[in-house]
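[Help] Beginner question about ligand-bound structures

Sorry if this is basic. My supervisor gave me a protein sequence and a SMILES string for calcium ion and asked me to "get the holo structure". I don't really know what that means in practice or what format the answer should be in. Inputs are pasted below exactly as I got them.
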Amino acid sequence: MNRYGGIDGAFYYRWNAVCGESRTCGVDLNEILEGIVRDDEPELVFFYEEDFEDTDGDYTVSGYGARWEWGTPTVWPESAASGDKCWGTDLNGNYSNGADETLTSPVIQLTGVEAGSDLVIEWMQALYIESSSWDNAYVELSLNGGSWMQMWAHTGSTVQVPWELKSYTIESYNDEDIQLRFRITTDGSVTYSGLYIDDVTISESK
Ligand SMILES: [Ca+2]
Ligand SMILES: [Ca+2]
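Answer (accepted):
No worries, everyone starts somewhere. Holo just means with the ligand present. The predicted complex, written as structure tokens, is below.
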């Protein structure tokens, strides 16, 4: 295997197949492709992945006016981010007026994460909500059962944002249990489809 420089300054590895005269040399293209490694891209090692296809992920719903449901949306965004299923603040209608409703993950116990490494939490999200003057959405995180810390919040005008990847990094993670929650609070009038969540992952950045 030889190391060589790419035009962008990155280094790549490649195999050279050497065949003797007395034997046939077969090279599997897939094996070659799997063997190509770029040195300059961070590697993500996944410790938690939930696409909500087979189960609801043991996520729980709580709060006032709660309409969180697991399944396939029949109103906007009219699909999950992956496969057929996701969680959303009502799969077939708008969120409630006067609501304070939360979707909470199970306590996620991570084992094997290198102490002091950066932990990356990612989720796919679709959002259709009134201005944050009236209706709000939050994604929060708790470590070892501690107070909830904000990873993301809806700010500004009324928005309709299709499925997009959201990301939050915990720097210097050190062997703590993690819990996530997705929450909306609403005022007394004007409702939309709300907050939709799919493909939650936690990975270590190497
Ligand atoms: Ca899904
Ligand atoms: Ca409202």
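A couple of things worth pointing out: The pocket of calcium ion (ligand 2) is lined by residues 130, 134-135, 186-187, 189-191 (CB under 6 Å). The chain is about 5% helix and 45% strand. Feel free to follow up in the thread.
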